[in-house]
């Protein structure tokens, strides 16, 4: 750090310009951090999916139902261990803007298939005993300040009417097990009150004996119901979870596209800033060379300025991203798992900032290195 004072003096020669350039890096890295966290949240459901579970849905669309009679036929397929089913409910709490996922489940079989719910045995038994019982993920409970024992009214959107529930469990499992759990209630309660679609289910979840046979069993299931009025499409639970995210578009492509645009913009902005700074300091750089500093020293001095601006802005932006994650998580509770900025993504962000700083500064730095002392001193 022998030349730190010289570096700082150059950086803050034009305080407003330096501050704005640092700010552009900060905003870019803030955006990167948010997008990285959102992408992780979209993929989290797939990351925690059971390797021994398949999801069987209507081949036409997930919004099309399947007959309840398929359950017994699924159980007869070799390699299938347990079968349960779910129905998407769709409702709001108190206000139409308070949407969160709700699903009716087949209570007697659900926990045999999906074992990682995140509620205790006592909570499950209490839920199981009450036809209007419900369990919910921790993030949704925190969003609405619910606690065990609360009476929860929900206004049906797909299944019209006022629905009343009693909360018996809040999932608090580690990782995503509790955070992405929706609002679950009894399928029997839905079946007795629904005015359409009786005897149908939204999709089946199938637990298989050997995960290595997942592909074969999926084909056998779809073959079993081929050429029927309700043909099926079977996927692993991981593929099914990923398909939900794909309904909003290719999240990875969107993030990469935005990142590329931001990166190119940073290169142009920082490159122009450093080129302007070099033009303003041509005579000073010539004096440095005249008193004995080498061309390489001038090159590294200019590069260091660009890198310092990039890293200051990058660190600031990532700190801002980490700081707003809790607030964003609360705002999106029930719609996405908690937003988390991983150390890996933080490191990637810093590398991108460093790369942008070097690439945007390399041409002005090279120009400064090649500057001839005589020509520079002649400039007015």
Provide structural commentary:
This protein has helices spanning 4-11, 15-47, 70-75, 107-113, 121-129, 138-144, 176-179, 187-193, 214-224, 237-246, 251-280, 282-290, 295-331, 343-369, 373-378; strands at 53-58, 66-67, 80-88, 91-92, 102-105, 133-137, 151-156, 161-171, 183-186, 200-201, 203-208, 232-236. It has 380 residues and is α+β, with helices and mostly antiparallel strands. The model is unreliable at 174-178 (pLDDT under 50). It contains 15 helices and 12 strands. Strands 4-7-8-6-9-5-3-11-1-12 form a 10-stranded mixed beta sheet. α1 (4-11) packs across α13 (295-331) and α13 runs antiparallel to α14 (343-369). The chain has 2 domains: 4-45 and 249-378, no CATH class; 60-230, no CATH class.
Give the helix/strand layout:
Elements: H1 4-11, H2 15-47, E1 53-58, E2 66-67, H3 70-75, E3 80-88, E4 91-92, E5 102-105, H4 107-113, H5 121-129, E6 133-137, H6 138-144, E7 151-156, E8 161-171, H7 176-179, E9 183-186, H8 187-193, E10 200-201, E11 203-208, H9 214-224, E12 232-236, H10 237-246, H11 251-280, H12 282-290, H13 295-331, H14 343-369, H15 373-378
Parallel strand pairs: 5-9, 6-8
Antiparallel strand pairs: 1-11, 1-12, 2-10, 3-5, 3-11, 4-7, 6-9, 7-8
Helix pairs in contact: 1-13, 2-10, 2-11, 2-13, 2-14, 11-14, 13-14
Summarize the structure.
The protein is built from 15 helices and twelve strands.
Name its key features:
380 residues, alpha+beta, 10-stranded mixed sheet, two-stranded antiparallel sheet, 15 helices
